[in-house]
Design brief:
Number of helices: 14
Strand order of the largest sheet: 1-2
Strand content: under 5%
Shape: globular
Number of strands: 2
Helix content: over 70%
């Protein structure tokens, strides 16, 4: 047997193993889009542009972590963008009022955790549909942000606060570092803890999980609290980046977060998906948005393109599920 045949065989085996990964197709899509953007635009593969992509992706990617937990249980969180805005404006208002930066950040994060916990309690214990509960919270949180600010941005923030959205550590953007840390934690939680296994089990079969002794109500409560917390954390980054609390920040961000999770191979019915897939989906969206902007594609056309890509991703996921059943 020649060396070439051995190498071809090992390549085929490796490719076959990779193709079984749930995020394989999104990863291929990301690589293809990246290559296309490099080929058609001169400014895409520059340090400043790649850093800009990293900053933009970080916000959606962090929100998408909480959305991943929700979708894995067969639910959804439509309130993420509004919770991000409310947490950000509260943080900004406290800092503008003279409250120390660290205390303001803790209050903002705690607020996101509480709002997510309220969603979780209504879904888990009051047995209300996630879509309705989080849709209501989306409206409530946005309304509270507008009431608190009077509809105007809040400026006058502590200059040290800019580090979280504009700073860097050894040349790596701070938002990117925060995103990596959040994804490492989420990966460990979902793949190496009983809680993570219970999340997948609850999404795979709620009733069977309950009968097997899993405290499914507590799982649901916690995953929406997590989603609220990650939304507030994204609020820290976007508020720091803008150096102002914007009550209208995060409009339609829930759609980008859902798109990242779905593009990453998660099933909307629950029980299937990976945190790595979500990151790949967020990167794919970020590169696509940035590349289309550089090319000069109309923003309305961009929405159409993204919508078509999401439909294709859902269709492929559905067909793969049918093939396995």
């Amino acid at each position: 047997m020649t060396n070439s045949s051995v190498s071809n065989g090992s390549f085929k085996d490796t490719f076959k193993k990779l193709s079984t990964l749930p995020f394989f197709l999104p990863l291929v899509g990301f690589v293809l889009v990246f290559i296309i953007m490099v080929a058609v635009t001169d400014n895409f593969l520059t340090y400043s542009n790649l850093s800009n992509i990293g900053r933009q992706v970080s916000i959606n990617a962090i929100i998408a972590v909480g959305m991943t937990f929700a979708i894995l249980t067969g639910g959804i969180d439509l309130a993420v963008g509004s919770v991000m805005a409310l947490s950000g404006t509260i943080m900004a208002g406290l800092m503008a009022g003279g409250i120390p930066m660290s205390a303001a950040i803790l209050v903002g994060l705690a607020l996101g955790l509480v709002l997510g916990g309220i969603n979780g309690a209504l879904i888990a214990y009051a047995k209300m549909p996630p879509f309705i509960v989080t849709l209501a919270m989306m409206t409530i949180a946005r309304g509270l942000a507008l009431i608190y600010t009077g509809g105007y941005p809040i400026a006058g923030l502590d200059q040290a606060f800019a580090f979280f959205g504009r700073g860097d550590v050894f040349g790596i953007e701070t938002p990117i570092i925060i995103t990596i840390i959040i994804y490492v934690i989420a990966y460990i939680v979902l793949n190496h803890t009983p809680f993570g296994r219970h999340v997948y089990a609850t999404g795979g079969n709620y009733e069977a999980s309950r009968l097997s002794g899993i405290k499914v109500n507590r799982i649901l409560f916690l995953i929406y609290a997590i989603s609220g917390l990650t939304s507030a954390l994204a609020g820290v980054i976007i508020t720091s980046r803008l150096m102002s609390g914007q009550p209208n920040a995060g409009v339609a961000f829930e759609m980008d977060a859902i798109a990242a999770v779905v593009l990453g191979g998660a099933a909307m019915s629950g029980g299937k998906g990976t945190i790595i897939g979500t990151l790949v989906g967020a990167l794919l969206l970020g590169v696509l948005n940035n590349g289309l902007n550089l090319i000069g594609i109309n923003p309305y056309v961009q929405n159409v393109i993204k919508g078509i890509i999401i439909l294709i991703a859902v269709y492929v996921s559905t067909e793969k599920k049918k093939a396995r059943s």
